[in-house]
Amino acid sequence: MHVVMDRGLRAISDPTRREILRMIAAKESSAGEIASKFSMTRPAVSQHLTALLKAGMVRVRTRAQQRLYSLDAPGLEALFNEMERFWEQVFEPESAGREEG
């Protein structure tokens, strides 16, 4: 039911993934460029990128031998919209009931 929200929240629950999102929001980057900013291996960074890709938050394009990662704004917007709907379903009926009573 809330697949977008579940995947998205799981993906951004990791501080490293949030930092990767900040980095690629500012500048499209290769996995090597991203890995150079962290004290982890390139395979570890690739695992984080894969999680972000599966959550629809990152897009990738190929240039020669490189895979370049950038933010997928529509994917992040989908997560935001799903969270907003969830908020409205859970909390808005409660506040509407108090206003009437």
What does this structure look like?
The chain has helices at residues 3-12, 15-26, 31-35, 42-54, 73-100, and strands spanning 29-30, 58-63, 66-71. It is α+β, with helices and mostly antiparallel strands and 101 residues long. Strands 1-3-2 form a three-stranded antiparallel sheet. Helix 1 runs antiparallel to helix 4. The mean pLDDT is 87.
Brief account:
With 101 residues, this protein is α+β, with helices and mostly antiparallel strands. 67% of the residues lie in helices and 14% in strands. Strand 2 (58-63) and strand 3 form a beta hairpin.
The total number of structural domains is 1
The first-level CATH class name: Mainly Alpha
CATH architecture: Orthogonal Bundle
- As residue ranges, the low-confidence spans are none
Distance between the termini: 32 Å
How does the overall form come out from the CA principal axes?
elongated
Return the average pLDDT rounded to an integer.
87
The biggest beta sheet reads: 3 strands, antiparallel
The strand line-up of the biggest sheet is 1-3-2
Beta strand %: 5-15%
Total count of helical runs of at least 4 residues: 5
Count of strand segments: 3
The CATH topology is given as Arc Repressor Mutant, subunit A
Structural class: alpha+beta
List keywords for this structure.
Arc Repressor Mutant, subunit A, three-stranded antiparallel beta sheet, 101 residues, alpha+beta
